[in-house]
Amino acid sequence: MSSKAVFDDLLQEEREFPPSPEFAAAAVVSDKAIYDRAAKDPVAFWEEMAKELEWFAPWKEVMSWTPPDVKWFTGGKLNLTHNCLDRHLKTATRNKAALIWEGENFETRTMTYQQLHTEVCKFANAIRSLGVAKGDRVAIYMPMMIEAVVAMLACARIGAIHSIVFGGFSPESLSDRINDAEAKLLITADGGWRRGNVLRLKDEADKALAKCTCIENVVVVKRPLGEPFPCHIKEGRDHWYHRLMADASPDCPPETMDAEDPLYILYTSGTTGKPKGIVHTTGGYSVGTYATTKYVFDLKPEDVYWCTADVGWVTGHSYIVYGPLQCGATNLIFEGAPNWPENDRFWEMVARHRVNVFYTAPTAIRAFMKWGDDLPAKHDLSSLRLLGSVGEPINPEAWMWYHEHIGGGTCPIVDTWWQTETGGIMITTLPGVCTAKPGYAGLPFPGIQATILNEAGEEVTGGTGLLAITHPWPSMLRTIWGDHDRYVSTYFSKWDKSVYFPGDGAKRDAKGNFMILGRVDDVLNVSGHRIGTMEVESALVDHPAVAEAAVIGKKHDIKGQSIVAFVTLKGGATRSEKTESDLKQHVVEKIGAIARPEAIIIGGDLPKTRSGKIMRRLLRDIVEGRTASDTTTLADPSVFEEIREMYEEKFKS
Ligand code: PRX
Predict the structure, then answer these.
(1) What spacing in Å lies between the alpha carbon of 393 and ligand 1's midpoint?
(2) For a pocket test of ligand 1, which of 11, 363, 387, 392 has the largest count of ligand atoms closer than 8 A to its C-beta?
(3) Can you give the pLDDT at residue 272?
(4) 419 alpha carbon to ligand 1 midpoint, in Å?
(5) Residue 97 Cα, ligand 1 centroid: separation in angstroms?
(6) Which domains does the chain have, with CATH numbers?
(7) By mean pLDDT, which of 11-20, 248-257, 295-304 is the weakest?
(8) How does 581-595 read in b/e, with b if 16+ C-beta sit within 10 Å?
């Protein structure tokens, strides 16, 4: 193995899972020729997809590219809400459920496309009456409720740029994001339920508002079912949603948007530094989310589709709201958590709503593994026909568990690699035509050109390297709000400025399937071998006792770095010195002595972001004896302290 390789190639995976003949025969994409066709002319492919949507005026040019800047569908005019709503009012989709909401306390509400259209038009008029116009920024800080979707679409209807801040973020994170975008309106709610507790969002928002001078008005949604949560209403500034709606007209023609007009800003913190306001535009994002939803999720008109993300993340933007609504899908949206009131809440819901397509994150899948096989087994999951994964690499054993225990051994799994910045899915399998391999995301989506480069920018054919996207795609970010230089330096300065650098390591198999090896920032360097976190973590998760693992490099005088692993065990497994030595041995057997962890810390949980990603940076702080660099994005700070104590205890002895 060359020490110049960006990542060493450690994990071998040969299991293959083609779709069943029945699935393939009924699939939206049933001919692999789509890949060749799109590869020959990606711009023509995207144009073909764009033609499936309705435009108020056609584009003059499909793409114009002055690296690193790109424009798609130049001169084209549209409104994304027209494609999400109005377009369906002419068909039978009109009376179909657009959204089925379930609250934590099992309440449900259903809204058809027609009803959603009316609600959005009324709210668009309401926010217009508060002085919001095209190009203004609107911050949204809400729990998972139908009104969060209405708020997004109402902004898009009038051309205001929404900036959603996940409801679990602190007042400080909210005020930073409001101030950076100079939002003039905040839409929030009195509160919501989370694991049996009330999340008093308006109270949190009030703390943030004390630090914001740009906000002129606040709209407060009263949680429609159950007891309202008391909150403070500031006269003149704060307005109840239901009062505004009572007087609002349902007549609101969509604003004519240029294809390149901004649609939204979404802040992403990345691993370090000030959050970046990722800017997505209207035309390209519409086309990208529409095409990927249609082809990857294989949606049929009768499907119930459930993406378990929150609208506060890009997955919620693209694959709860904009993609599925453009496709006329029925979306299940859920306020609560997978483990409330019991650890089988998701499976109970899948059975009760007869969910057909289910999209979740590896962090959730690993939690389900930990909670035990008996929980999904208690429920009838036979309605499921397609499963998806997003957010982190899915370790092969987690993939196998998902396949067997949730997918009944038959559902294809789409492991979708993408980012807030890419707007839509970039690498995955098209479920009717591709053979899936656990741990491999699959092929670049048609029209996406991805490769693997080394540091010098040379293509890596057989081994590991840095993932690179070599051609623009419609749903890509256009800039970072207020900081175009940072856009150029973060994404287009690694190599040639026409090549997008996502910051992930990857390798490819002989058929061109990509495996994502983890963030380049997290790479380990042991005796000159660059080891991706995904492979060592997957070797640990492969052990029957392990639910979840995170590995990091610890400074080592001789090797440069040694590996420290933080692990959580499945229910029933016990923490002991024997378990630790078994796990070390298991890694040696799966990967080789090079990857043997020097220490294994077995704890109750791992530090994660609120979207469920493991924060290896904080584990590095522990190992290097630093105070935690930035814990504001941490979901549960007590987990971090617990692990620190365990680590210190271990290294004392
Ligand atoms: O490292 C990759 C990982 O998540 C990053 C993007 O995170 P974010 O912008 O929060 O978007 C998450 C939802 C799209 C990527 O750079 N990632 C995401 N999906 C996968 C993944 N890593 C491996 N496999 C995936 N399927």
Answers:
(1) 7
(2) 392
(3) 56
(4) 5
(5) 30
(6) 21-506 (3.40.50.12780), 523-651 (3.30.300.30)
(7) 11-20
(8) eebbebbeebbeebb
